[in-house]
Q: What sequence folds into this?
């Protein structure tokens, strides 16, 4: 749909991230872990985890015709993921007229927390 | 070399990031911008910019046999990049026995600042 | 008690912050808002909100004889507080051997969210 | 002056912070360290350091009649301060129409870096 610009995210597709659910203020994205996501230590690269979280944020905040751009984002790495799949759940924490705050939790296949990401958006 | 684990970063390679220079506490990484880096608004996806910055951090902090893991990272998006290339320069701001702080500046082909990333590392 | 070093926090006392409850990984702190907490726009100064949150983190992470130092902290300001009292609830999100992650929510007298603070600690 | 609202910051005054220099996009603030700034470990409380940095940001961003509110702030603690005085220098990193990014460096009496703070502001 024309008001779901996040569906056209080339980078998210390129790395294998997929939005499973999206409504204003809430979204779920998933990514199957492959060799292409590994860093030099054979751990999932922080950028891959970050991108999945950012994609969930984009889906939650750009639903319904809104255009929200990320202003900044802070990621905390909690533990290395186990299993073959990462899931990111983005929830709006608070939203003003222009500024919105989202929290995204990334979990692994066992449901263990992998990263916590706080993203601040600016509504155009 | 065996003490340059960042050379084996599959994810960085996959998205086209390359380390141009690396010494302890300092590194430069570069990425040619392609269609694969675009988000749904045809801007470079935040995750692509973040990954480039994170890769420069990894190169600077994992040089010389050290293994440093990112604990957390904060990215501020300054402006959308122009041109066809992004460059990330990572510099150590301070380093204690276990904890180190890096600042990474990402600029576009015109030398304009695109993002500022602060990364905290933990030396194993 | 000698293992509750946060009880001796002079700065927290000076600005009127008080720990109501503290156990490992969880604490509640409170502060009555006074004229002394105002910034130049007659809003509660960000530093006062931050300090209350940091104090709750210190109580939760320094309980039971542990010494945990903050490495970094990110605060997001959600809305201006109403009423005469702020409450900060600190919860451990994840804890490794040395590194721990806390989330602190600050609410006003009406229970409305005022700030969200993520703090990373290092256990000595 | 009426366009220097930061001069009326009650909390900054209360904890002993003072603006030494302020122009649009740049400011310097200072604080004499006293017993009142100590935490339970007899180190300068993170909230005191944060408040000084935030005050320098407010001075730099609210000069010349602008009103800029902090949206979020990330502080990294580099090392414990030595000596009897802290200095915070705030510099604008980038400024758009509504959103601005500042970096504040806090140093101790020996000129050693104590904390690095990144603050994002929203111009009303």
A:
């Amino acid at each position: 749909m024309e008001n779901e610009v996040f569906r056209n995210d080339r980078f998210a597709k390129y790395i294998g991230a997929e939005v499973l659910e999206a409504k204003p203020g809430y979204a779920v994205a998933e990514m199957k872990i492959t060799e292409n996501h590994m860093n030099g230590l054979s751990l999932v690269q922080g950028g891959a985890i970050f991108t999945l979280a950012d994609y969930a944020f984009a889906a939650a905040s750009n639903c319904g015709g809104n255009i929200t751009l990320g202003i900044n984002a802070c990621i905390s790495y909690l533990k290395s993921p186990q299993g073959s799949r990462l899931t990111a759940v983005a929830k709006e924490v608070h939203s003003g007229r222009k500024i919105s705050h989202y929290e995204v939790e990334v979990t692994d296949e066992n449901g263990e927390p992998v990263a916590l990401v706080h993203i601040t958006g600016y509504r155009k």
